Amino acid sequence: RQEHHVINRNISPTLADAVAAALSASAQPLDIDELVAKLTARRPRVPASRSAVQRTLQRLYQAVPVGAGRYGWLTSLLQGATLCHPLSSDEIRRGSLLLDELEHSVFFPQFFQEFQPDDRTVEITMFGGETLHVDAVLERKMWSLRLGKPYVEWLSDLGAESHDDLLITVTDAAQGRYEIRAR
Predict the structure, then answer these.
(1) If we measure between CA atoms, which residue out of 164, 36, 149 comes closest to residue 88?
(2) What is the pLDDT of residue 80?
(3) CA-based torsion, 66, 12, 119, 90: positive or negative
(4) In terms of Cα–Cα distance, which of 117, 114, 141, 131 is closest to 177?
(5) Helices (DSSP H) in the chain: which residue ranges?
(6) How high is the mean pLDDT of the chain?
(7) What is the DSSP-derived secondary structure letter of residue 27?
(8) DSSP per-residue codes, 122-165
């Protein structure tokens, strides 16, 4: 499954799509000149100016500045990252993982480009347990992942309690694959 790029209507679709495709295909962040060269090679009839590319980068949520004039694609930059999530008793009881804004952007990075829910299903592998496929849901005015009974049982088997930490590791952000373990 390839990562899709739905771009804000205020940006030229062809340039925005080309910038998103070039950055998401690059294993390393690119500087503006490298990006312009890639875009010009892909779209020789529509030259990309530095200023047009810079304006487009400012409007793409997943185009993350990583240094002076260098940009990486969020899902590429997240590979192998680990976040710490403090469990609440309510999450344990309900079988949910309530997402703060950072966690939401890790699991659903495209949401912040469009501010619209998408049909992305994420794969959560519970360390030493099952792999679940879940969607984001609104729960008490917060985005959450409803992991259900297998998650509750897994936490119980581990003896997890309120204020214990879950470690969320990004296995493949573009494909929506993550691993969780209790600490």
Answers:
(1) 164
(2) 92
(3) positive
(4) 131
(5) 13-25, 32-42, 50-59, 74-77, 89-94, 101-107, 111-114, 148-158
(6) 86
(7) S
(8) EEEEETTS-EEEE-EEEETTEEEEE-HHHHHHHHHHHT--TT-E
- Residue corresponding to tokens 């003896």: 159
User: What is the rounded average pLDDT of the residues 118-137?
Assistant: 90
> Model confidence at 95, in pLDDT bands (50, 70, 90)?
very high
Max Cα distance, the chain (Å): 61
Angle between helices 32-42 and 13-25 in degrees, nearest 10: 110
- Rounded to the nearest 5 degrees, what angle is found at the Cα of 87, between the Cα atoms of 108 and 156? 110
Q: How far is CA 171 from CA 61, 146, 164, in A?
A: 21, 20, 22
Contact 110, 6 (CB under 8 A): yes
Q: How far apart are CA 149 and CA 144, in angstroms?
A: 15
Task: Retrieve residue 33's tokens.
Answer: 């000149």
Whole-model pTM?
A: 0.79
Strands 122-126, 177-182: parallel, antiparallel or unpaired by DSSP? parallel
Q: Specify the pLDDT at position 174.
A: 87
Each residue's pLDDT tens digit, 35-63 = 998 888 876 665 678 888 999 999 898 89
